[in-house]
Every structure is written in C-alpha cells, then in structure tokens.
Amino acid sequence: MMFSMVLAAVGHQEAESRFQRLLTCLSHPPSYTCVRASTHLAPLEEIRQKLGEELKKQQMCTSSEKEVSVQILPHPLIPDVLLLPVDGPRPVEQLSSEVVVGTQCGSAVLRGANVFVPGILASPKFMKAGDVVSVFSDLEGRCTRGATSFQGMRVFVGNGVAQIDRSGIFCTDVAAKGVGVRMVEPLYQSPSFDGVLPNLAFLQNLPSVVVGHVLGPLPGERILDMCAAPGGKTCHIAALMRDQGEVVALEKIKNKIDRIRQNAKMLQLNSVKVYCFNSTKAVSSDSAQEHEGPPFPAESFDRVLLDAPCSGLGQRPSMSCTWSLKELCSYQPLQRKLFHAAVQLLKKGGVLVYSTCTVTLAENEEQVAWALETFPCLTLQPQEPHIGSEGMLGAGLSPEQLRLLQRFSPELTWDQTGAAAPLPYRADRDTIGFFIAKFLKK
C-alpha cells in the first residue's frame, strides 16, 4: 500500500520493484558533495581555489600520504555550485570496540562529518581518548543513552579515534560538546566541512540550490520564504538578489529561528528579515496595516517560495524506513493550507515556487493538479535550470504540464550512474529525492 502511494501510475510489480530500489538508494549518500559558493562575496574560481587549499590542509593532517589531491569541479549549468566526488562504500574492517550513535549523527557521518559528542548513545565501558573504535548507527532509536553495548538493529558507518573519555561524555553535569570521534576510516570518504570557509562554502543539496534559481529573484524585489528553517534557501535567495531588496523568512518553530539569523549573518546578508510565525495565518484582513511583520496584506510579495513541510521520503542517506501510511497521508492538508496563503500573498504577475524533499505523488503532482483547479489564476511555467526529470504520471496532468515540472528521482538511475559516468552527469541524477513546480499568478 505504501509504495502505491509513492508510485500510483505504474503497475503493481513495477511499483514494488521501484519502491525497493528507492529504499536501497535512500540508504546511501549521493556520490558527490554539493557546495553552494557565496558568489555574492567572491568569484567562483577564487572560492574553488581557497576551498581546495583548506581541504588539502585538512587531509594532510589526517592522511599518511605525501600527495593529497582534492577534486573540486564547477557545475556546468549552475554558476554557484561546486561538486566534490564521494568515494564509497569502501572496504573498512569492523573492530571489536564499538561506539553507537543516533540515526541523524550516522547519516551525517556518511556525508563526511565527524561524530559530535551529543550524537553518541553508547561506548565501551573503559573508552579513553585515543582509542580506535568502530561507529554504528542505531536504526530504530532503541539504544539507551549511556549504554556500554547495543545489540539492536544498527549499521556500520566507519572507524574513528575517540577524542574524549567515556566519563567526559556521560558522567558530567554540563553537557559535553565538540568532536567525540574523529573519523579516520569512514565507509564513505568525503571532506569534513566543519569550520571550513563557513561564509564562502555552504553545504546544500543540489536540488535545493536549483530551487533558488528557478524562483529567479531579482534585486529590489520583496520575496517571501514561507517555511524557512534552517535558512539555506532563504540565504540563497538573498544572495541571488545581491542583498538588494527584502527577503521575509517565516518559521513557526521558535527554536529554529536563531539558525536562520545565524546563517544570514555568517553569509553577510542584511536583506533577510526573520519572524516566528505560522505561515497558514500569514494573510492579514487589514489591507492598510502599518506594522512591518506578519500577518501581511494580500498581494504583498513579488515572489513566494513554498518549500513545504513534507514526509521527507527523499532525504539521503536515510538508513531506516520509519514512515507509516498515516504519516505519508498527513501532509497534504497542511500543504494546501499553505498554498491558499501563498496565492493570496503573491502579487498579480508574481511567481510562486512549490517544492518538497519527498517523492510521493500525493505531495507533488497531485498538489499541482489541485492547485491548478483551485486557483484559475495560476499557470505552470518553464523552469531554468531544468536538470531533473519531468513530472510523474498518475495525477491527471497533461504531458505538456508534466514537462514543466521538475522531479529528482534518484531511484530511476540508481544502478545506471556508475563511477565511470562524468561527475556532472552523476550529480544531476544521484541526488536526494525532490520536486519543484513553478507557477505564475495571472
């Protein structure tokens, strides 16, 4: 039943096969690391050179090899993207001394991160700084914090060197911070960007960068990002506008607000204004209101980005399938409430971009079909760049309409984008699962 929700337009056998490919694909990281370069602060080539120098220094500190090479390629179509190949899965021997981390931490390790202390759930009873350990990710969230061992469902993510004693992790009144295990033999080898050019090199999935370009913000415009945390797309929009104009970022979860502000400050963007507010209530009935923040009068924005809350069935790496059918079905009503607000807040002649990081038909093409029927003022528009595939059958959209949509479906080419393929070719296909639709309000 679940895979029919995801792939409603194909036969049962093909749907099941494709869903299993999807789950396999999602359990692995993409075959490259995507970096969004802050080209509003420096030219791309200058950032590329600085990044190469920093990563070489980093690798020389952790590698015994004299010659360290770092491959960094510009994306051929997207002017602010740099691509770094990921090597893996590599043959790494598991050790008897084991550290267990949470799934979020395990996923970060697969994408090049070290293990930070808050992510550690279990460690050997007598672990000391300097011990070499194998790191495992708890797949079901069942490991008790402070345990000395764990035999539940887990997956190996590589070997590292403990940077802190066990007592410093679990036996302190003050929560410990910083790196707990420095990864020296990760299952997937990719650079750690911890502290590396934080204002010039911003880690972001390729489809998330594409969204900003598809929105097409121009200097001097007023733009709304309706569900803004953690602020990567918000800051990209402001950077594309050369920080000229206003980018209003709304986020209803209070403890996520600071992250957006920190990212904007780090990237030296002054045009971003952040408010803790529920975007479903962002339309004001007072067309003459004088206060600056939300709610806003109708037709207040030149462009609106609705990067909607979704089931997230496209995020990679995701090492366990924990989605229930009920959860997959729960997002559609919220997305439609947000759509109603977005259309009202958009000026006539303005652009609305709807995006999700999921692959379900119900949250993507079905929402587009519903929006076109519900709001006659909306028409689908071509997207630039369009490096993903077209929309999926099953929602009643015409072939012309499907061609205007952009869907990133890594499971379709999972077994076809081998290491021999050119990196940009792999980069455009071996992504997280993602969906983009662009509308014009007539």
Automatic annotation (TrEMBL):
GO terms for biological process: RNA methylation. Keywords: Methyltransferase, RNA-binding, S-adenosyl-L-methionine, Transferase. PROSITE patterns: NOL1_NOP2_SUN, PUA, SAM_MT_RSMB_NOP. One of its GO terms (molecular function) is RNA binding. CDD domains: AdoMet_MTases, PUA_NSun6-like. InterPro entries: MeTrfase_RsmB-F_NOP2_cat (IPR049560), MeTrfase_RsmB-F_NOP2_dom (IPR001678), PUA-like_sf (IPR015947), PUA_sf (IPR036974), RCMT (IPR023267), RsmB/NOL1/NOP2-like_CS (IPR018314), SAM-dependent_MTases_sf (IPR029063). The active site is at C357. The keyword Glycosyltransferase does not apply. S-adenosyl-L-methionine binds at C227, A228, A229, P230, G231, G232, K233, E251, D307. Signal peptide: none annotated. Residues 126-442 form the SAM-dependent MTase RsmB/NOP-type domain. Belongs to the class I-like SAM-binding methyltransferase superfamily. RsmB/NOP family. This is SAM-dependent MTase RsmB/NOP-type domain-containing protein. The lineage of its organism: Eukaryota, Metazoa, Chordata, Craniata, Vertebrata.
